[in-house]
Amino acid sequence: MRLPNGVFAPYTGIPTNLLFFERDGPTKEIWYYEVPLPEGRKQYTKTQPMQFEEFTPIIEWWKDRKENGHAWKVPVERVVESGYNLDIKNPNGKQDLEHLPPEQLAESIRNKERRIAEIMAEIKQVLADGIKQ
Predict the structure, then answer these.
(1) Mean pLDDT for the chain overall
(2) Which residue positions in the chain have pLDDT lower than 70?
(3) 3-state class of 71 per DSSP?
(4) In what order do the strands lie in the sheet containing 29-35?
């Protein structure tokens, strides 16, 4: 289980993931289920922990397991190849921010600033034209 935000906050931004293994023999696939935060919540805390009711959709899903936006399965071979690292992110979830080299990041910022300056000049012109009329 990946622990929810708030358990190690502010040190990590990982979601809560439950992992399911086979009990009746060697595991061939590991099911992952990412538990979404309740509406309006940014994280779990000591004073606002997970509630049992939040597991209801997971229990229902378990009866007829299918991959979806919250659930996915991973072949055990992939885990073995990764050195038994079970920290596998939801392939349907949001992607991590891309870390650009400093030169590319600086160029991207310069381009955005140029575009902002162009838009501001256009706004000033529209305002100036509106005042003249």
Answers:
(1) 83
(2) 1-14, 94-99, 132-133
(3) strand
(4) 16-20, 29-35, 71-75
